[in-house]
Every structure is written in structure tokens, then in C-alpha cells.
Specification:
Helix content of chain A: 40-55%
CATH class of chain A: Mainly Alpha
Strand content of chain A: 5-15%
Order of helices and strands of chain A: HHHEEHHHH
CATH architecture of chain A: Orthogonal Bundle
Largest sheet of chain A: 2 strands, antiparallel
Shape of chain A: elongated
Bound molecules: iron/sulfur cluster
Number of domains of chain A: 1
Structural class of chain A: mainly alpha
CATH superfamily of chain A: Winged helix-like DNA-binding domain superfamily/Winged helix DNA-binding domain
Number of helices of chain A: 7
Distance between the termini of chain A: 24 Å
Number of strands of chain A: 2
Oligomer: homodimer
Strand order of the largest sheet of chain A: 1-2
DNA sequence: CCTAAAAAGACTTTATATGTCTTTTAGGGG
DNA sequence: CCCCTAAAAGACATATAAAGTCTTTTTAGG
């Protein structure tokens, strides 16, 4: 359980790749896709989502492509994951206790809240800069 | 992402209900299902899995039913969840680094290992006894 | 106005989740 | 031995989501 989807995995690969490149240049989607070994059409969808969230900037037409929206040290893995996978929700009652009529006296409920907090904490503590760096830091 | 399935949610409800009852009695699946508001046929499948793992004991025929396999304080939420949802795996490279040819120099890889550890840690720290108790402890 | 490249959205295929149904096996009681 | 009860097993059905493709449109440069 709790498995990241392909989409999420591809998303991370793609943006980490971008984070490892000089920031003031644009890169072709087709090149990124080839470099990180992801179907280009699929990665296109993913980068469109990134673009809407401001994680990357897109440029159309000749000489167009993508560049990172912010400095890599200011983008966390949490943002990247949530941009394409949606919020991290171990159970629907975490979103809103009203989603389950049992939430009132349910002892399991707070456990999921803790899980959510821990996961978010880990992912929030990792930036694209660290992920794109040569040597392991984590 | 990381959402528990219905199956997992139902599984927890069912076994927590059982954990809140006197342990040396058997309970009808149909009664448990009604009490925790889960389709009986579905809960049957879930309890069959529990039975195989020894989390519950089953008795067939007249006067049959289910009882908890061990004392509630000796069953963790982690066991329950993994019994029906499978192991907690944020990404397939956590199972085996060989599942991804990039795992060698991938900085993301250890992050998923950390996530897995944190989640397992939280769930392992909660027992059915706590979950079945009247007052919240967590 | 021609070409390059992303945006948008419809579409297809595959896999997983969420059940249901039927038949079989085991156990207890008359 | 027969019958009734209840779980086990496994086939079956449906719905939803994941994964990926294709076509058309928009934007920008030269
Ligand atoms: S029963 Fe408890 S853990 Fe399950 S969805 Fe409801 S509040 Fe959450
Ligand atoms: S690229 Fe890294 S994080 Fe992704 S599956 Fe491979 S090893 Fe794991």
C-alpha cells in the first residue's frame, strides 16, 4: 500500500533532472523525457500540471521548452509529489472528519493524522537542490 | 496519494470491533459486518486473510464464527494493515533497489526508505487494545 | 506565413478496487 | 446418518483509476 504511482515517479524524475541543469535555460520536453526515460506524451501532461502550479515555466513555439519556476532549494519534494498526486491522505477522514460518521469516537482516526504528518514532514524536508546534487546528502 | 483502500479500512474496523469484545467467545461474521457497517461478503474475504495470518481464529459449522487470534495488546495496527493491503511500499525501489536501474545514484531512493520507516513506525506503535479502548489514547 | 513546441482535451487500454455468487468443507445436534 | 449452520474457496461482475496515446489548438520566432 501507499505506493507512488508511475506518474508521481516520472514527475520527480523529470523535475529533478531540470533542477540539476543551469536554471536560466529552457529544455525541450522531448529531451527531458529521453533523459529520464519516460514516455514523452505522458511527461507532457505532468509538466502541464507543474506549469499550472508554477513549479516550472513553459515557453511555446520555436526555441520554447521548460525551465524551473523557482530556485531548486525553494522547491520541496512534497510540493512536487502533491502537484501531481494530490494531497497526501492516508484515509479520507483525515481530509474531513465528516467524511466518516464514526470519526467522533474513533481511535484510529488520529493515527492517520499522525501518519500524514510524518510523511509530509519527511517530504517537506527534502529540496530539489539536494535531490539534484551529485553526492548523496540524505 | 497513499490512501488506504476500503478493504483496509473495513479490515481495521472489523478487527478492532473484535478486539473490543471478550476474547474467549466466537462472533458471527454477519454480526460483525452489521456492527461495523461493511458488506458481509467483503468482510468474509478480509477475515479469511486474517485467519491465514493467524490474526483471527475461525470456527466453522454450528456455533462457529471468529475470535481474535492473540491478545489485542499483542496485535499492532501495522500487522492488520499489512495483512490485507500488503507491505507498506512508498516506491518499488524500496522493496528491491534492483527494481530500478537508477537506484545506484538516485538521491530520491533513500527518501522513500525514510518514509516507509516513519509510517511503519507509527502503525507499529499502535495496538488493537488501544484502538478498542473507550477513551482516546493516541 | 511557415515552422517549432507546448496546451488542451478526447480517447484507449490496462490494472486495481470493490464487490457478488456459487459451491465446497467442517462441525454440531438430533 | 442426516440435516442444518457457518466459514472457505474461488469464480465471476462491475466500477474506478492508472497509464499512455492521439488529434487539434494556441503561441511564439524567424
Ligand atoms: S472509522 Fe475511524 S479511521 Fe476509519 S474512516 Fe472513520 S474516522 Fe477514519
Ligand atoms: S528513480 Fe530513484 S526513487 Fe525512482 S524508482 Fe528509481 S531508485 Fe527509486
Amino acid at each position: 500500500m501507499m505506493e507512488l504511482t508511475r506518474k508521481g515517479e516520472y514527475a520527480i524524475r523529470g523535475i529533478v533532472y531540470l533542477a540539476g541543469k543551469p536554471m536560466d535555460k529552457v529544455y525541450l520536453l522531448s529531451d527531458i523525457a529521453a533523459a529520464v526515460d519516460v514516455p514523452p506524451t505522458f511527461l507532457a501532461k505532468i509538466f502541464q500540471q507543474f506549469s499550472k502550479m508554477g513549479l516550472v515555466k513553459s515557453f511555446r513555439g520555436t526555441g520554447g521548452g521548460f525551465m524551473l519556476g523557482r530556485a531548486p532549494e525553494n522547491i520541496t519534494l512534497l510540493e512536487v509529489v502533491e502537484a501531481v498526486e494530490g494531497p497526501i491522505i492516508p484515509n479520507r477522514c483525515v481530509v474531513n472528519p465528516l467524511n466518516c460518521e464514526r470519526s467522533g469516537d474513533c481511535n484510529v482516526h488520529p493515527v492517520w493524522a499522525r501518519v500524514q504528518g510524518e510523511v509530509r514532514g519527511v517530504l517537506e524536508g527534502v529540496t530539489l537542490k539536494e535531490l539534484a546534487s551529485e553526492r548523496q546528502k540524505v
